[in-house]
Specification:
The complex is a heterodimer. Chain A is α/β, with parallel strands linked by helices. Chain A has 3 domains: 253 residues, 3-Layer(aba) Sandwich (Rossmann fold); 81 residues, no CATH class; 47 residues, no CATH class. Helix content of chain A is 51%, strand content 10%. Chain A has 22 helices and 10 strands. In chain A, the strands form 2 sheets. Chain A has a 6-stranded parallel beta sheet, sandwiched between helices. In chain A, strands 8-5-6-9 form a 4-stranded mixed beta sheet. Chain A starts with 6 loop residues before the first helix and ends with a helix. In chain A, 45% of the residues are buried. By secondary structure, chain B is of the alpha/beta class. Chain B contains 13 helices and 8 strands. In chain B, strands 2-1-3-4 form a 4-stranded parallel beta sheet, with helices on both faces. In chain B, strands 6-5-7-8 form a 4-stranded parallel beta sheet, sandwiched between helices. In chain B, helix 11 crosses helix 12. The longest helix of chain B is centred in the last third of the chain and has 18 residues. Chain B is globular. Chain B starts with a strand and ends in an 8-residue tail after the last helix. The chains are: A alpha/beta, B alpha/beta. At the A-B interface, helix 17, helix 18, helix 19, helix 20 and helix 21 of A face helix 1, helix 2, helix 3, helix 4 and helix 8 of B. The complex binds iron/sulfur cluster. The site of iron/sulfur cluster (SF4) has 14 residues of chain A, from helix 14.
Chain lengths: 449, 241
């Protein structure tokens, strides 16, 4: 099985320090905001997600009715191509040249920016982290802190190069530079595109959670607002939001609540002072219904994209966000990617885990990530076993069922194993213990004599 | 008298036999009648975790046959214990033997503190010790305070916490050889944390983690030693004869 070369990330001291300290800080803050009812909240959220996804068709139809009743329009997109085509056409029809965007992993998933660029539309990211990456031509490194790997100095370099600003390394100064540049774009933009954290079926509302206020502005300043969301983001009732908003803010950034929570319901109605003139909700499938069909792994869709599993993942914290094959990195990426793309796409992915379980422990909606990783490993083996490995496990299993052979063969295997294959790989990092003269079973026999 | 059947795990049997002997000694001193069933081999975890469920299933069945009728099964490994008590059910759904077995399998420290209600075994050990939480013991078996209490009650032993005791050592079974660089990076982070405590010994309840940690300590030419909890508890403890 081919595995990616991660030596560059592991050898980059500056990067290692940046990832380690940023994720530690987020983890620390999370622990500080956890309340004594946290376990109950997690179970409640898990149960709501389970109920909703078990009856997804019902809630999506209810959502559609309620969005349209409020003057919005729902677009069902089978895949990224359909979603992008709709947005391109709409922009073209309305003569939109500039679009402001707030942070959305769903639009990353469908490469919306690239599609818009191809037809000559400028889509500007307005979340500070995303903006920095867009200027530098990079992808999100982390699902909630996209520029987590960038130092203040790195950001200043990028701004100097692309915005011709002066050297500036204070966070406030850097934010100011970005704000000035982005303000122009907000004024120019004919369309705002956002993601959605939650879609509320009983009220037809889109809920956006953020800390910078740019999502609120992107959804209200331009004449047209398009929200792009995976179909799994729906929740049944507005009253359930209390639990989800708490869990999301605490798990993601260790805040009691995020700074801005916007409830957006449709377009501006008569007599209302502000809001967009047109509102569209693009509901994206892009493989989600396939996941839905798999009952034992369906809970992968419960994810509220808080990023806590990344911050607590010892593998993510070593290899960072760019060694994962798709936009979703860390533990959640490890279970989503093979299910969206097919296990054959990157068969190594579910194996790149020590199964330490830290992800499942922190996940606010209690996704059993380690269990799903194990199932995916089994799927990979069923789909495309490595012949040599299969045979060695067959031999191993036979030996393990024959204790007499095991007692004789195991010491031989240990003392005579040549330093190739797994032994060589082990020795590439650490020493091996000296095999003992006698096994436990030998010692026990002697003792009992 | 409490009758205990040892499951010493293949790693302890073949690589760390003294851990198994130490465990037997502590259990006997605590008043247990200890047996070792020779037909035992492995808990099936290597195949299960690698995705080879058919092969794992046959080894799990061998385990069930071997331990039929055992009153308590005590294991010197959180990971192997959890394989049996948490994952056999996934391999053999609906098998009543698994259902019957689950409440009788204990990790060694858990057996001492929860079943025998022993927190002081009367051992002594001279030195500054830090404890590494092994992942499956911590997260699947919820073992956290028990081993620490047992250590704190050892005469002469001073327990110091590392700042990242709950962080994985990077072993992960075949992960350690499928992704050696990542696994190596993880264990180096771990030994940095261990070194910061100033402890001369690092203790855990899983020999596989200790093999990984000791291997990295040796590679870094560190003087710090690893010890299984059973070895510490058996220290200066006379065998109950
Ligand atoms: S899987 Fe859980 S912890 Fe990870 S991002 Fe999703 S909700 Fe957060």
């Amino acid at each position: 099985m081919k595995t990616p070369d991660v030596t560059a990330a592991l050898g980059d001291k500056k990067l290692q320090l940046a990832i380690y300290s940023a994720t530690a800080r987020l983890g620390e803050r999370r622990r500080e905001t956890i309340t004594s009812d946290h376990e109950e909240l997690r179970q409640y959220a898990h149960d709501i997600k389970k109920h909703t996804l078990d009856h997804l068709d019902f809630y999506l139809e209810q959502l559609e009715r309620n969005v349209e009743a409020r003057g919005g329009k729902v677009i069902w997109a089978k895949d990224g191509a359909e979603a992008c085509a709709f947005i391109q056409n709409l922009a073209r029809k309305r003569g939109v040249k500039v679009i402001v965007k707030s942070k959305s992993m769903t639009t990353e998933e469908i490469h919306l920016n690239e599609h818009l660029e191809e037809v000559g539309i400028e889509a500007v990211e307005t979340d500070l982290g995303e903006y920095i990456l867009q200027l530098g031509g990079e992808k999100p490194f982390h699902i909630i802190a996209p520029a987590l790997h960038k130092t203040k100095e790195d950001v200043s370099d990028i701004f100097e190069k692309h915005l011709h600003s002066k050297r500036e390394t204070s966070p406030e100064g850097l934010t100011k530079i970005a704000r000035v540049a982005l303000r122009e774009k907000f004024l120019e933009a004919g369309m705002g595109i956002t993601g959605a954290n939650f879609l509320v079926a009983d009220s037809g509302a889109i809920v956006l959670v953020e800390n910078e206020g740019n999502a609120r502005l992107s959804s209200s300043a331009p004449k047209i607002h398009v929200a792009v969301s995976g179909i799994e983001k729906v929740i049944p009732r507005a009253q359930d939001l209390g639990v989800f908003l708490k869990l999301l803010a605490r798990s993601a950034t260790g805040q009691p609540l995020s700074v801005y929570t916007s409830f957006l319901a449709g377009a501006k109605r008569e007599g209302e002072p502000d809001g967009p003139e047109e509102f569209y909700l693009v509901l994206l499938d892009n493989g989600r219904t396939r996941l839905l069909a798999d009952e034992s792994k369906r809970q992968s869709l419960y994810c509220i994209r808080c990023g806590a599993c990344l911050n607590h993942c010892p593998v993510y914290r070593k290899i960072g966000g760019y060694n994962y094959p798709w936009v979703y990195s860390g533990p959640i990426g490890k279970i989503l990617t093979p299910q969206f793309m097919g296990i054959e796409h990157d068969p190594w992915l579910p194996f790149a885990s020590s199964l330490c379980g830290a992800c499942g422990e922190v996940c606010p909606v209690k996704i059993e990530i380690p269990r799903i990783l194990l199932e995916l490993r089994s799927d990979k083996v069923a789909n495309d076993p490595d012949r040599a490995e299969l045979w060695s496990f067959k031999v191993w299993a036979w030996v393990m069922r024959h204790p007499k052979f095991y007692a004789r063969l195991a010491p031989l295997a240990l003392s005579a194993a040549p330093p190739v294959g797994p032994v060589k790989k082990w020795l590439s990092q650490r020493d091996l213990p000296v095999p003992p003269a006698k096994s436990f079973r030998d010692l026990w026999k002697e003792r009992s004599k | 008298m409490v009758r205990v059947s040892l499951f010493v795990t293949c790693v302890v049997d073949q690589v760390f036999p003294n851990v198994g002997m130490a465990m037997a000694k502590v259990l006997e001193a605590a008043g247990c009648e200890v047996e070792f069933r020779e037909a035992q081999t492995c808990c099936a975890q290597p195949a299960f975790n690698s995705g080879y469920r058919d092969q794992a299933r046959t080894v799990a069945e061998h385990f069930l046959t071997t331990f039929e009728g055992a009153e308590y099964i005590v294991v010197p490994s959180g990971s192997c214990c959890s394989m049996i008590s948490h994952h056999f059910a996934e391999l053999l759904p609906g098998d009543n033997r698994v259902h019957d077995l689950e409440p009788r399998v204990f990790e060694f420290s858990q057996f001492l503190t929860n079943v025998l209600k022993v927190e002081d075994v009367g051992a002594s050990f001279d030195g500054l010790v830090t404890y590494h939480d092994s992942c499956h013991a911590l997260r699947e078996l919820k073992i956290k305070d028990g081993p620490r209490k047992l250590l704190q009650n050892v005469r002469g032993l001073r327990l110091v916490e590392m700042d990242t005791a709950e962080e994985c050592c990077g072993f992960g079974g075949t992960f350690s050889v499928k992704f050696p660089e990542i696994s190596g990076g993880m264990v180096r982070t771990k030994i940095d944390a261990i070194e910061r405590t100033g402890a001369s010994t690092v203790v855990s309840i899983d020999s596989s983690c200790l093999m990984q940690i000791q291997g990295a300590l040796d590679r870094a030419r560190s003087k710090i030693r690893t010890m299984h909890l059973a070895e510490v508890l058996a220290n200066t403890l006379k065998a109950a004869e």
